[in-house]
Write a sequence for this structure.
């Protein structure tokens, strides 16, 4: 496993880390025993960083992490998120009372005394600009409840604003072959500011595995069914903001990237890891097989300059215009 510095925090995290949305819920059927086995397999391979949130399965993902990492609290770093258990537009959600309660509840579920990275979970820009929530986070940091804090953002504008906020040490950003915009301005400026980048949804909700067809369907409790067009939350969180059929068609045009790299999923994450401003990629998983497959991205064949240029042109000419929602 290769490790990268998380901004200027002093934390070195595995370049392939894992998100836990899928094992918490909203991704269809899951198996807790298999989820635990997947977490254990990742740690055996050297993964030392996991991302979760208090709303993933109503805190269930945090509980699974507590179970899997028991006794390894000093070696395995956990990032969790807050605010979406409340009304993200209500200022009261970001009050000291509310944030402290969110934090304490996550600490209990994680069975930890301190959260390594505590992130605001995709709040509106106005909340960030108000600044109240950052004051609360600084207080929790001083008390030793959290080690560092950051923000999971939906747009480049939000990310750029966060870079101006003292104490922000990490940004979590949707970044994949279908969502290349953050690499243009946000990533270089984050690097200069000493802020780490966590690349989420690296496979565009599975589109970049190449396994879907236009007739593919998803379970009713899977966000790829109930949020395909942004019905419940930001449309960019599902299929990178692309209409499903269009995303499937575009993924077929990318099938060539798998050659010599195992498969499309590994190739897609290999492309992300080749950006020097990315700290780590955080794919999801629901079983050991998916964990092992994702781990293979580190050893996949690098892309040539010509291939990188081809992928950039593909995004600009065939993808960009079809992405829905602000980003």
């Amino acid at each position: 496993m290769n490790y990268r510095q998380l901004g200027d925090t002093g934390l070195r995290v595995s370049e392939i880390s894992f998100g836990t949305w899928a094992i918490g819920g909203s991704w269809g059927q899951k198996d807790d025993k298999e989820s635990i086995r997947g977490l254990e397999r990742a740690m055996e391979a050297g993964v030392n960083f996991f991302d979760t949130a208090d709303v993933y399965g109503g805190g269930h993902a945090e509980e699974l992490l507590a179970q899997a990492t028991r006794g390894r609290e000093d070696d395995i770093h956990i990032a969790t998120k807050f605010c979406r258990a409340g009304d993200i537009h209500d200022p009261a959600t970001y009050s000291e009372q509310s944030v402290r309660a969110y934090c304490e509840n996550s600490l209990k579920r994680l069975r930890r005394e301190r959260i390594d990275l505590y992130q605001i979970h995709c709040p509106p820009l106005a909340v960030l600009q108000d600044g109240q929530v950052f004051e609360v986070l600084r207080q929790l940091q001083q008390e030793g409840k959290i080690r560092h804090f950051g923000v999971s953002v939906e747009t480049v504008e939000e990310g750029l604003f966060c870079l101006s906020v003292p104490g922000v040490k990490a940004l979590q950003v949707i970044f994949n072959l279908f969502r290349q915009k953050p690499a243009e301005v946000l990533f270089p400026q984050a690097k200069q500011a000493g802020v780490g980048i966590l690349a989420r949804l690296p496979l565009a909700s599975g589109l970049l595995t190449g396994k879907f067809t236009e007739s593919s369907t998803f379970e009713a409790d899977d966000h790829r069914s109930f949020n395909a067009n942004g019905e419940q939350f930001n449309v960019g969180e599902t299929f990178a903001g692309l209409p499903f059929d269009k995303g499937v068609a575009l993924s077929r045009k990318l099938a060539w990237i798998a050659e010599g790299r195992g498969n499309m999923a590994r190739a897609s994450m290999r492309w992300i890891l080749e950006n020097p401003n990315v700290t780590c990629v955080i794919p999801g998983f629901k079983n050991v097989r998916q964990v092992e497959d994702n781990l293979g991205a580190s050893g996949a064949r690098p892309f040539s300059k010509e291939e990188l240029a081809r992928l950039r042109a593909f995004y600009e000419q065939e993808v960009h215009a079809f992405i829905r929602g602000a980003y």
